[in-house]
Automatic annotation (TrEMBL):
It comes from Pseudonocardia broussonetiae. This is Transglutaminase domain-containing protein. Keywords: Membrane, Transmembrane, Transmembrane helix. InterPro entries: Bact_TGase-like, Papain-like_cys_pep_sf, TgpA_N, Transglutaminase-like. Residues 536-548 have a biased composition (Pro residues). It comes from the Bacteria. Residues 434-505 form the Transglutaminase-like domain. It holds the Pfam family TgpA_N.
């Protein structure tokens, strides 16, 4: 029995929803037009084949050709060339995996999505029109939807909309034998609503909690953009930059009040070198805000033009980067630092960033972030630990303690003369700076401060970049030169994120903008008393308060139980129909005589699904007499099947393929009669589990 034409709408709708499942990877507005163009083109070909004398064998090639042409037109409408689109078909899936999300909506990236939708639509329609089980026609689109979620899992309202949309598409396919009248619409609702509710409930559950305590699996966990092996750490370049103070590093045009520009963030130290745990991947459309910031933020922008003096694969940016246009850099999602291996001679780019907006006293008496790991070190020199004990006198980690330590550096040490800049940031250089010379550049100040703060249990990292220059050129752009090269420590403040400090004192041009982090830090610094009453010490790495003994947390086991129940229900809803479909396919294969017997076994199990009492000792004719009054199966069809079974089993003659086809034609007639039953009866039949085994004698 061939499904009604509108069943194809369900298959096409499922393919459309599956394509839009990538809306967590690309913006939905960028996906909609090419995906919709492909689906409409394939649907037009299907309608043409159904309503005209066009041979059915041309449905797939015509649909694929017209769908590909429609997708190509949609993708190249904005200016990209067909060559760029073809390149996206080959490598777009891989480059999308490497990018932050949402990825840039370039045809070179998203072209593979319309291709997947095209394959799902063409294959699904072809299977549907050939009479294969309706659920099988949905498998290609289901595979695309699963792949989309492996790229990035949809959560919240997006997950609910996808689940509801796919549920309606499934209902349309499963009710293909009914019209779109009142009964048909009611059927769609009765079938689609449970699917949508189960899927959307699961999506909502796993969007807010993971019973296993681990992040959702993603294909994006793969190797990232490497830092060039020839790149020199900006920290090691500080001395060389100060030796060439007049070289222009970059120019800036901005109305925002900024005091520094970051190149890299260093959070590891081995006694000689400072390292970064940054993992760079191509920057997409927008980078989410820092999860450690729980206060209001403002968005600012600047146009930056790198000059030959920059001489580094890192681009100047602000904490924290939101987006970049004009170039396509890689970004470290944790810090927002930017990497562009060919940054020398790079064009002007626009960087947008988010910065907390704070009241003047927001940083007074605040705590450090307990969730941020401390600086990764192999060991701390004894001299560093001694300094921490002497300065903070056993006080616990807090932002006032960080400010007190900053003030101590300002009072105790001084900047080295510009014509004799100090260099070095390893143990030997830092201990010499602390104990003997007591003079240094921002390199020694920042590195020594970071290690002393680490010894005191304060979460601190070392940043390297440039101070904002007050010099401007004829075009009104700020000119940042090598003399502005600068290193500074940053402290993780609870709810605010990373706050930059300046232990050099006087070397920083602090932002005077009201509400800026620098302004709030200056206010907290001014209100720090000379004899600071610091917080009592807490053991570094002390365990956080947890559930009281004897009162284990219930959320994890509860969610695990719910997840297990959901998995069982999902396995039942999907596994039983798929198992029956596979069994049907196996019964249609083999020798013609076996295929005829398989037709009887399939008919027997279909009748059992619908509640007909068929036991193992019944003949075909006996089953027909039981089925006629119970489910309305035509007796003549079962009589015809009985004659074919008798001939295959008892005549002694060879059974030909035509006889096997006639036997399965009787099965199709039985299916047609059963398909006219009420929807609840058909749903129960499709999900009946006990008929997967043979009947009792």
């Amino acid at each position: 029995m061939t499904p009604r034409p509108y069943a194809g709408v369900g298959v096409l709708g499922a393919a459309l929803v599956a394509g839009l499942g990538f809306s967590t990877v690309f913006a939905a507005t960028a996906l909609l037009i090419p995906v919709l163009a492909v689906v409409l083109a394939v649907g037009l070909v299907d309608l043409l084949v159904l309503r005209t004398p066009v041979p059915a064998g041309l449905r797939a090639p015509l649909g694929a050709s017209l769908g590909a042409a429609a997708g190509l037109v949609a993708l190249t409408a904005g200016g990209p060339t067909p060559t760029q689109v073809l390149d996206g078909l080959r490598t777009g899936w891989l480059r999308t995996l490497e990018s932050t999300l949402p990825a840039r909506p370039d045809p070179e990236l998203l072209a593979f999505v319309p291709l997947l939708v095209l394959l799902a639509a063409v294959i699904g329609l072809e299977w549907l029109r050939r009479g294969i089980a309706p659920l099988a026609a949905l498998l290609p689109s289901a595979a695309v939807l699963v792949l989309a979620q492996l790229y990035a899992t949809a959560t919240g309202p997006a997950a609910v909309l996808l689940a509801c949309g796919y549920g309606v598409a499934v209902a349309l396919v499963l009710t293909a034998d009914r019209g779109l009248g009142r009964t048909g619409l009611r059927t769609v609702v009765l079938l689609g609503l449970p699917v949508a509710l189960v899927a959307s409930s699961a999506a909502a559950l796993f969007a807010v909690a993971d019973p296993l305590g681990s992040p959702a699996y993603s294909l994006r966990e793969r190797p990232l953009t490497p830092v060039p092996e020839t790149a020199v750490s900006p920290l090691a370049q500080l001395g060389g930059r100060l030796a060439r103070p007049d070289d222009i590093a970059f120019t800036v045009t901005t109305e925002a009040s900024v005091d520094r520009w970051t190149l890299v963030v260093l959070d590891g130290y081995d006694g000689v070198n400072w390292t970064s745990s940054a993992r760079y991947r191509p920057l997409g459309v927008d980078l989410p805000g820092d999860p450690g910031v729980r206060t209001a933020t403002g968005t600012f922008a600047a146009d930056v033009t790198p000059d030959t003096g920059l001489d580094a694969p890192w681009l100047p940016t602000q904490n924290r980067t939101a987006s970049v246009t004009g170039v396509a850099p890689a970004v470290d999602e944790a810090t927002g630092t930017l990497l562009l291996p060919d940054s020398v001679g790079a064009p002007t780019y626009t960087v947008r960033w988010r910065s907390p907006e704070l009241a003047g006293d927001a940083l007074v008496d605040t705590a450090v972030d307990p969730d941020v790991p401390l600086l990764a070190v192999d060991r701390l020199p004894a001299g560093i630990v001694t300094v921490a004990d002497e300065v903070l006198r056993g006080a616990g980690p807090s932002f006032p303690a960080a400010l007190a330590l900053e003030q101590w550096f300002r009072d105790t040490y001084s900047l080295a003369p510009a014509d004799r800049p100090s260099t070095g940031h390893g143990d030997a250089a830092l201990l010499y700076f602390l104990d003997e010379s007591r003079q240094g550049t921002s390199e020694q100040f920042a590195a020594a401060y970071t290690l002393v703060a680490r010894a005191a249990g304060i979460p601190t990292r070392l940043a390297v970049g440039f101070r904002q220059s007050g010099e401007s050129d004829a075009a009104g752009r700020f000119v940042v030169r090598n003399r502005d090269a600068f290193a500074w420590p940053e402290v993780a403040v609870d709810g605010v994120g990373w706050v930059a400090l300046d232990p050099t004192g006087g070397a920083q041009q602090e932002s005077e903008a009201p509400g800026s982090v620098s302004r709030a830090a200056a206010e907290a610094r001014d209100r720090l008393p000379e004899s600071t009453a610091l917080a009592p010490p807490q053991p570094v790495g002390a365990p956080q308060p947890g559930p009281a003994p004897g009162a284990p947390g219930l959320l994890g086991p509860l969610l695990a139980t719910v997840a297990g129940l959901f998995a069982v229900v999902l396995a039942w809803l999907v596994g039983v129909p798929v198992a029956k479909w596979v069994r049907r396919i196996r019964r249609r294969r083999g020798r013609p005589a076996d295929v005829v017997v398989g037709a009887w076994l399939e008919t027997r199990d279909r009748l059992r699904d619908h509640g007909v009492a068929v036991h193992g000792g019944m003949t075909v004719r006996e089953a027909g007499r039981a089925a006629a009054p119970a489910v309305g199966v035509p007796p003549d069809e079962l009589e015809r099947l009985a004659r074919r079974v008798d001939a295959a089993l008892w005549s002694g003659a060879d059974t030909d393929r035509a006889a096997a086809d006639e036997a399965w034609a009787s099965v199709a007639a039985v299916d047609g009669a059963l398909a006219r039953r009420r929807v609840p009866e058909r749903v129960r039949a499709a999900l009946r589990l006990r008929t997967l085994t043979g009947p009792r004698l």
